[in-house]
Inverse folding.
């Protein structure tokens, strides 16, 4: 579905476009200083873009290209030339993917360019000065500010696109800096200092560790994707057995994750919530006679708790974290005794059950949840669910 871009996203893309035009025009007018160094960094940025895996479930941040761009900014050739080289290298590296229709998102590329330009502007005072003992410390300080700028900008863009709370988005962005982000920053400093001492031949030597890190991160992302697909396949066992409607587990998982994000859960907590929502009905496989329509929300509380306990026992045998099984087991308890993820699964599962019931619908189901708030469902979760549905549009019922 096509939607208009939020003003904040348009502003970021427009600012990056103006920055790119200015950098290219200034560089064309004044010429390129140290052409060999500029070419070497441009090639490295292009290689980083080429190594990006397009079409992945989780976009890779092209750490090699990002580190090269930051290193060139730290080397102090001037902000316009840095922007020009990074734009040229990025376009050259992304050209094959763009030709296949799998290039990086415009707003993500814009954010990376603005972050690089910020670092280059911060390094303007170093131009023409000989390296001193304070030089590495200044570069580290600049990279810290640049990383903070990127996290703030990324959270603002995500907030504009999704409407999710800003603070959790910023917290997740800052937490991500401890992973590949720290390797990118460290490599950027080492590259900049290495080129100053040993010339452009230091670039391939410095790039090898980060390249290996990128390949390891890609393998880890592939493992996580396979794991999530395995969980989704296992969750479909209840659909295949005729215990739940088609797509029920997938809908509950997607909506639960959106509600969890709206309530400020961190990324690890959202992963636990998603897995628990996928597996929340697995206990129905123990039933001799399937519940009509799989609507466990209509069962007596004691039966709901029995099914939840059986489901938790099954989940524990799959090797997933205990936190997932705990949410599955506690989804049918009184909501005041539940952790927040279990409250979310309970309310979202009931919503999906009610929309599929005869005479049901999105508005009617939400009204019934609100009537049951403070007794059966957490009012906080119900109102969050209403906000999420309002942003996405109230559906008359689950898809067939």
């Amino acid at each position: 579905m096509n939607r208009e871009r939020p003003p904040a996203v348009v502003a970021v893309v427009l600012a990056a476009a103006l920055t790119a035009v200015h950098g290219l025009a200034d560089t064309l007018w004044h010429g390129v200083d140290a052409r060999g160094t500029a070419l070497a960094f441009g090639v490295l940025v292009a290689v980083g873009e080429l190594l990006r895996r397009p079409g992945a479930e989780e976009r890779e941040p092209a750490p090699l290209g990002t580190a090269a761009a930051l290193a060139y900014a730290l080397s102090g050739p001037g902000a316009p030339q840095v922007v020009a080289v990074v734009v040229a290298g990025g376009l050259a590296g992304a050209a094959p993917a763009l030709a296949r229709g799998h290039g990086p998102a415009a707003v993500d590329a814009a954010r990376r360019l603005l972050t690089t330009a910020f670092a280059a502007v911060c390094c303007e005072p170093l131009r023409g000065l000989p390296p001193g003992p304070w030089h590495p410390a200044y570069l580290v300080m600049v990279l810290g500010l640049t990383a903070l700028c990127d996290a703030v900008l990324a959270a603002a863009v995500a907030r504009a696109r999704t409407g999710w709370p800003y603070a959790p988005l910023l917290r997740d962005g800052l937490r991500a800096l401890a992973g590949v982000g720290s390797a990118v920053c460290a490599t950027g400093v080492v590259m900049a200092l290495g080129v100053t001492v040993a010339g452009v031949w230091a670039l391939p030597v410095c790039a090898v560790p980060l390249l290996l890190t990128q390949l390891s991160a890609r393998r880890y992302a592939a493992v996580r994707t396979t794991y999530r697909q395995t969980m989704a396949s296992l969750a479909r066992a209840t659909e295949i057995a005729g215990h739940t409607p088609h797509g029920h587990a997938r809908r509950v998982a997607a909506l639960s994750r959106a509600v969890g994000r709206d309530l400020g859960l961190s990324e690890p907590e959202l992963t636990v919530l998603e897995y628990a929502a996928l597996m929340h009905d697995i206990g129905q496989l123990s039933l001799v006679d399937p519940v009509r329509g799989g609507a466990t929300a209509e069962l007596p509380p004691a039966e709901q708790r029995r099914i939840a306990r059986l489901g938790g026992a099954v989940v524990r045998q799959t090797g997933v974290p205990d936190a997932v099984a705990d949410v599955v087991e506690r989804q049918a308890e009184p909501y005041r005794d539940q952790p927040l993820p279990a409250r979310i699964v309970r309310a979202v599962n009931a919503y999906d059950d009610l929309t599929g019931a005869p005479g049901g619908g999105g508005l009617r189901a939400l009204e019934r949840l609100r009537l049951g708030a403070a007794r059966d469902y957490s009012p906080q979760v119900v109102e969050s669910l209403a906000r999420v549905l309002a942003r996405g549009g109230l559906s008359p019922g689950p898809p067939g």
Q: What stands out?
A: The radius of gyration is 25 Å.
